Amino acid sequence: MPALWIAHVTVSDAEAYGKYAELAGPAIAAHGGTFIARGGRFVQLEGKERPRNVVARFPSVEAAVDCYHSDAYQEALSHARGASERELLVVETSE
Question: Which domain of life is it from (predicted)?
Fold first, then answer.
């Protein structure tokens, strides 16, 4: 079953986070991920508001988790740590 990778982010260092984004895109694509939403308009109805929200579709939960643990994504993530506050989850879709 396909899965969605959903990230809610507050960026505190735009330059460092830009490096993360530059490296994360290819890492996500290498695992079959495609972006559905990247920082567009949103309406926060409940919970903590984060100004940047990203959704990527993967072929499966396993593909998304493998991406997260890959060397390429971990290299990208090293630029986001200390440059952002984030929540990230993967959820299997019903289609």
Answer: Bacteria
Q: What is the Cα–Cα distance from 73 to 26, expressed in whole angstroms?
A: 9
Structural domain 3-41+50-92, CATH architecture: 2-Layer Sandwich (3.30)
Tell me: pLDDT of 6 over 90.
yes
pTM: 0.91
Instruction: Determine whether 94 is exposed, middle or buried from the number of CB atoms within 10 Å of its CB (0-12, 13-18, 19+).
Output: exposed
Domain boundaries, the chain: 3-41+50-92
Per-residue DSSP letters for 13-67?
Answer: -HHHHHHHHHHHHHHHHHTT-EEEEES------SS---SEEEEEEES-HHHHHHH
State both tokens at 3.
């899965």
